Backbone:
């Protein structure tokens, strides 16, 4: 069954076989090199495919802006407040780290770090600038071979004072070393809703590491050892970008959230897209915090 899925992927993909020459274990690249400038024309899309192939990521500035961005930021805090108030109202213990300790609507990935799906299917998060008209959408479709399905839209809410997170990927390669590294089957779009500075801490990524995470057991679990295990010795790249930027990265790329050394919440809106046949069933439990309307 799995073989069949990959055959389908490869036959749909129009991109040429890669001709990488760099050593992915020593990759060092700056944010400027990874930025996609201008509108989403064919050369921009080709560049995104190339950057993704080599580094596993790229980004766009000002993907959302102005009053709409501010509305998203306010709504993210309001949704978190509602979830945490509901936990208290029900007399439940505070949400502990781990999928099994959370709810279908909200899970803590680490102390002070919430991953929340609650309320992201309503305004402003379901509006056109984040869905049909999103500037990242043509890139996502091309990167995933022509047809992308939205698996999750969520909010990563990191409280002021949260410590840095250990390294991890968000998913595994589909096959082990017996199969060449395939184009991405799943990717994230992260949209920070506040400016990302060294104080508030961004996502830190290991460019090129998606080429080294194949066949590594439990690479999706948070661990300080992963970088050594995969032999990545490059320069980690902290994502310091203005609010409203969009970071696209491969599900198989090693990354972590940096510490938030402010007293403010750091909200990141995210979208997880995949090839139509892929599902990630491990991220949220079935237990509900709110009853469906
Ligand atoms: O908060 C971030 O910047 C990254 C968070 C993350 O990677 C996760 O929770 O899995």
Residues:
């Amino acid at each position: 069954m799995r073989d069949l899925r990959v055959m389908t992927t490869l036959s749909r993909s129009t991109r040429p076989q890669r001709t990488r020459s760099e050593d992915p274990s020593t990759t060092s690249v700056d944010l400027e090199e990874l930025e996609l400038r201008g509108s989403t024309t064919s050369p921009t899309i080709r560049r995104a495919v190339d950057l993704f192939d080599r580094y596993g990521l790229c980004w766009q500035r000002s993907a959302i802006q102005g009053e709409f961005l501010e509305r998203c930021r306010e709504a993210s805090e309001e949704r978190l407040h509602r979830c945490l108030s509901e936990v208290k109202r029900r007399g439940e213990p505070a949400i502990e780290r781990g999928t099994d300790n959370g709810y279908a609507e909200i899970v803590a990935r680490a102390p002070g770090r919430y991953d929340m799906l609650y309320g992201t299917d309503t305004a402003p998060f379901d509006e056109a600038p984040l869905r049909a008209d999103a500037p990242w959408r043509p890139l996502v479709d091309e990167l995933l071979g022509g047809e992308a399905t939205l698996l999750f839209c969520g909010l990563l809410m990191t409280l002021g004072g949260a410590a840095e997170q250990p390294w991890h990927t968000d998913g595994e390669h589909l096959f082990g070393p017996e199969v060449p590294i395939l184009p991405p089957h799943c990717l994230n779009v992260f949209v920070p809703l506040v400016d990302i500075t060294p104080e508030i801490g961004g996502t830190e990524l290991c460019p090129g590491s998606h080429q080294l995470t194949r066949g590594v057991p439990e690479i999706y679990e948070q661990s300080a050892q992963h970088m050594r295990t995969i032999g990545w010795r490059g320069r980690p790249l902290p994502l310091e970008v203005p609010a409203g930027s969009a970071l696209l990265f491969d599900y198989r790329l090693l990354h972590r959230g940096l510490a938030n050394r402010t007293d403010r919440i750091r909200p990141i809106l995210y979208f997880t897209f995949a090839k139509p046949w892929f599902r990630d069933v491990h991220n949220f439990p079935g237990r509900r915090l709110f009853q469906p309307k």
Q: What stands out?
A: Residues 169 and 273 are 15 Å apart (CA to CA). The helical segments are 2-12, 31-34, 42-55, 66-89, 137-143, 226-230.
